[in-house]
Predict the 3D structure of the following.
Amino acid sequence: MKIIFTSSGESWDSVIDPRFGRTDFILLYDEENDKLSSIDNRDIMNVAHGAGPKTAEKIFGLGADVLITGNGPGGNAASILAKMPLKIYVRAGGMTIRQAYEAYKNNQLVQGA
Amino acid sequence: MKEIVIISGKGGTGKSSICSALAYILKEQSVIADCDVDAADLHLILQPQSSQTSEFVSGVKAVIDPDKCISCGICANVCRFSAISAGEKAYQVNLLDCEGCGYCYYVCPEGAISLPEQKVGACFISQSRLGNTLVHARLNIGAENSGKLVSKVKSLARQQTEMEHKDFLLVDGSPGIGCPVIASLSSANFVILVTEASKSGISDLKRVWELVKKFKIPGACIINKADINPDICKQISKYLKQEKILALQEIPYSDDFPKAIAMGRTLVEQNTTKWQPFFQQMWATIKETL
């Protein structure tokens, strides 16, 4: 399984960024090889409109199975994400990446979008 | 820190009046952010002082270099906003009509067109009259609000809330259901919807709630001017029940709203005996659900 997190930092101890489109980082955890990699998304700050769809586009190319985020994507971003086989879990805002991953493993996250 | 966003969908429902009243009740525990950047007005009531100012940069507009322009007119032909016209020596962009789409920039064979970022206003971190910090912004005339600007106000406000160790960030959200509202909601913990008992009140409430639902944020609703149309008020109450939105105390039409605004006061200062217990109780109800 490949799992994506919206994150305010680049490590397991970083806090989930509750925002989808304007998240600072996109973290990708590949369970198969136990590797956590990160994509810097901070250039999204300079986008005036349509931040959600732009971030969704980036995620499209990553081939992930699961997305864990805070408040979830808006309508336009959700319609892009719906085109891939991706399960979306929300309300992980405030948790660290590690806590969010544990919560996901224990079926404690809410499925969204 | 809990981030509470107040939105209305429809304008004129009393959103900012209610926000400033809650800002009064929470003055020791909160930072306030005015994300209604298009028509910022909390500063009229909270009269902030000693601002820390930063520039707002958002969006682009086309500029044609007259020395490089060969007057081929391709740019004017493709412009969907009729913003480009032939000048004496070179083609020119009317900045008021330009939407910054960049079509002309891509088609210009001479590379004579650039898309510089626009300075659209300023953002302030100020001390409000009540003592709490107010983060707010001012747009230049004709400039447009965007998700980017709201995000900037919000991220400054969140930093400020953490720095001051305050428990609550109270956000006066943007109107409508577009990009700025999405940016207002993106990191919210709780939403307060302010509506009124009118046709457009209920219609816009439904539209904005559909958006809030996408973000799975819990919400409560205040029906303001509840007595101006009892039928619609009943319809709204039914909708709230059906959607599991917490119904807060209804507010009958009150002259105190326009009077308080005219005097530059919060509702609580306008009529303390009436509104102080009212908003204290409302806050207690909200706090329980957070």
Notes: The radius of gyration of chain A is 12 Å. The CA atoms of residues 24 and 43 of chain A lie 8 Å apart. Chain A is about 25% helix and 25% strand.
